[in-house]
Amino acid sequence: MKKILIPTDFSKNADHAIDYALNLFRCSRANFYFVHAYADEAYQIGGFKSKTNLDTIKNKLESKVKLAIENTLARIQDPVSNPKHNYSSMVVFESLVDSVNNLVDQENIDLVVMGTKGTTMEKTISFGSNTVQVFKYVKCPVLAIPDNYKYQEPKHILFPTDYQLPYKRRELKLLDNIAGFFKSEVHCVYFTQFETLSHRQEDNKRFVEGTLSRSYLFFETQQANSVQEGISNYRENHEVDMLVMINSRHSFLEDMLYRSTVDKMGLNTEVPFMVMQNISR
């Protein structure tokens, strides 16, 4: 039974991410958890001079967002609910990252799915600040869905990797289950200027090969000055339906997330983007 957590701010982008997740796992038995964290909204409203004022704002917001999340559940079950799916919802007075991490721990969540930007984001921005914060700090794989992405099965998955660090079996198995169900090609591409792998890299590569056993697996090496450049060039010449990257210490993705934003670093992906955290769970 898959456990999928979907944070929502009730925007069109959030609804789009929900629809993508329901489609992606439409033939899988799954529990879907919908959460809205509204602490930031309350503090942004401001104007409270005492705890009483804050409680008043919290109560008003809570009533509003409970109705909104009930409407979300009603929408996805109209006209009928998928019999393989179970749905639950919650609204919490916490920050987004805290609420997601708490639920990941409490419910042993397999995957977090969310939109790439919220209600106030500019069209030129690919990833909103909330999405980047979740990429950085949530201890669970995260799948971000671009707001203009039309659903299609992830038949061609790009997985850039340098084989430097050991992978976590649970996270690779999540990818393998998706790829196996859709009979997808997973292209493990090492963007580098070096010809050969070290013994450690060879060991990690064999682990990937053994774990992604249900996938149509391809190992490729391509010359590139940077991972960013390599991904961009690869996507120009190959069909890609999903991008998967590892966010681990000293990785390209960690460096990108902590030094700047995804947009400033130039990784403006137009396809679903899965970030795996490489954490034992």
TrEMBL record:
Q: Which InterPro entries does this chain map to?
A: Universal_stress_UspA (IPR006015), UspA (IPR006016)
> Which Gene3D superfamilies would you find in this protein's record?
3.40.50.12370
For the UspA domain, which residue ranges apply?
1-146
Q: Which domain of life is it from?
A: Bacteria
One Pfam family from the UniProt entry? Usp
Give the protein family: Belongs to the universal stress protein A family.
Please report the name of this protein according to its UniProt entry: Nucleotide-binding universal stress protein, UspA family
- Biological source species: Flagellimonas pacifica
